[in-house]
Amino acid sequence: MKEIKLVDARGLSCPEPVLMTQNAIKGLARGPVAVLVDTVTSRNNVSRIAERFGWRVRVEDQPDGSYRLVLDK
Prior knowledge:
This protein has 73 residues and is of the alpha+beta class.
């Protein structure tokens, strides 16, 4: 089973979640990477930047209203 790299950006405002995601995926040839965010804006911005870098994004709504984005390549 693949180990998942975790980026917990909950409670942070953009651009912090995007910058944290960029740092996590920079130099990685493959995933998965899980990114936790708690706003729609962060969800959308992190998804956009990951896709721009060639990553597939799966969004999982969490029971507490936050989002878990699973990035894979």
